[in-house]
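Hey,
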Amino acid sequence: QVQLVESGGGLVQAGGSLRLSCAASGRTFSTLNMGWFRQAPGKEREFVASINSGGSITAYADSVKGRFIISRDNAKNTMFLQMNSLKPEDTAVYYCARKLVNSYDYWGQGTQVTVSS
């Protein structure tokens, strides 16, 4: 069992930055591949970024590539999402989850990010 808790969301102006955190407990975090997703009002949940267990392999959605950076600190059982040059269309609830081969599970409760224009 893995428990995931997101934090770091908030209200920011367009062009600003936020850093989200995903704290994990209950399993050996360093063995888990992880990912970030987001869900805007009235839209389906969409992939944002993923990172392998060692932090050496990352992937990004085209919409955030070059602006967001995913990272992790296995010593602190925490994953991060540094979000720069934020746009109003980045407004959503952001979730972290464990990455399996073809799916994700152990979703956190989410953290709200609102970008004002």
